[in-house]
Design a protein that fits this description.
It is built from 2 helices and 29 strands. It is mainly β. The strands form 7 sheets. A 5-stranded mixed sheet has the order 2-1-3-4-5, covered by helices on one side. β23 and β24 form a beta hairpin. α1 packs parallel to α2. 45% of the residues are buried.
Length: 365
């Protein structure tokens, strides 16, 4: 009787079929600028080949804070027709998102914001920018250490740890008004704040009871709810898209590993990754995977674990990976600059540098 030897499964990473699209230069006083932004957004999305012999053509007019966008198929049929009002840049980003969602069914991230720490002033200060590195604004001017900014999913607030009082407390900045409130100031360390998907809660590491444990607190402050009660250091919390669970890094002295826990508390369960050193997890908006840091290649690398099946792959070098709204792109830092990684094509694009050392990015959804 012959015995069947099972072959190990082959994992095929599809490069994805790209859509041929022509961006015909937008007319109007803001047309040239809008065209450039639109082309960049569509290229970075990874879904399109901007070519002449295209299945679709995008065109329009941009002037006076208004953009009229139109996409037609090769037969001349209208696929998308929409008007936008606002800044030329924002209008182009929104048109790009609508093109992506109309033609691919996937969520675009062209209107998203990123928060990060940069040292161009000589101190670690919180900055915010558009996802493509434009419109950089310095949000803190405290002259003390600021760390771990977390931008709310709607891009309107940033939570971060600042040392203005001499102690590491958590503050929330309203980006529109610049108003800032201290929401967590327990004795000891308060760090790693992360907004929940609905923006109403924050998960963070607090050491007020001696050991660094995970807590949740209302985004407007108030009493904190303790989630973990074990020895070892818990850090880097990130919410599942439903808000029901939190992934975090847990180091019991044998090297940090990834764990998941109910956001209501309970006991954490380990996530198998095949790596011995796992930090800075970030849960994808589609709920299917977690990006995190591993050691390798003489520094840190970005790995992605599939929660259904547990396959893990390294997608590039870098630190602090954070997902975009499409669950396909990651932003991370390397060598003091910001990069975007397309995990389908492995394309890595520099987004921003020249601000001293950039660290700890966060990306709105």
């Amino acid at each position: 009787m012959s015995r069947c030897v099972q072959e190990p499964p082959t994992i095929t990473v599809s490069k994805g079929d790209k859509i041929n699209l022509t961006v015909s230069g937008l007319t109007g006083g803001e047309g040239a600028a809008a065209t450039k932004i639109l082309q960049n957004d569509l290229t970075l999305s990874g879904y399109f080949i901007l070519s002449g012999s295209a299945a679709y053509t995008a065109r329009g007019n941009a002037s006076g804070g208004n953009l009229q966008g139109l996409v037609v198929d090769h037969g001349g049929g209208t696929v998308l027709s929409k008007s936008y009002s606002g800044s030329a840049r924002e209008n182009a980003h929104r048109f790009a998102n609508d093109i992506i969602e109309t033609l691919t069914g996937n969520k675009g991230f062209a209107s998203s914001k990123i928060a990060f720490i940069a040292t161009r002033s000589g101190k670690k200060e919180v900055h915010v920018a558009d996802y493509d590195g434009s419109n950089v604004r310095q949000m803190t001017h405290d002259g003390v250490i600021s760390v771990h900014p977390s931008i709310s999913p709607d891009g309107r607030r940033i939570a971060y740890t600042g040392y203005q009082s001499g102690y590491p407390d958590v503050y929330v900045i309203d980006l529109a008004s610049g108003a800032r409130n201290r929401i967590v100031n327990f004795p000891g360390t308060n760090s790693g704040a992360a907004f929940s998907p609905d923006g109403n809660r924050i998960a963070l590491t607090v050491s007020k009871d001696g050991n660094p444990e995970l807590y949740t607190v209302s985004a407007s402050g108030g009493s904190a709810r303790r989630l973990t009660k074990t020895r070892g250091v818990k850090s880097g919390p990130s919410w599942s898209p439903s808000g029901d669970e939190i992934v975090y890094s847990f180091d019991d002295g044998h090297g940090p590993q990834l764990y998941r826990i109910s956001s209501g508390g309970g006991s954490g369960s380990a996530i198998s990754t095949g790596h011995g050193y796992c930090t800075e997890p970030n849960w994808s908006p589609d709920g299917k995977k977690i990006a995190f840091n591993v050691r390798g290649g003489g520094g840190f690398e970005v790995a992605v674990v599939e929660l259904d099946g547990g396959n893990t792959r390294v997608v590039g070098s870098g630190e602090n990976p954070v997902w975009g709204a499409d669950s396909r792109h990651l932003i991370c830092t390397q060598g003091g600059a910001l990069y975007m990684i397309d995990i389908v094509t492995s394309r890595k694009t520099k987004i921003l540098d020249g601000l001293g050392k950039i660290t700890e990015p966060s990306w709105s959804r």
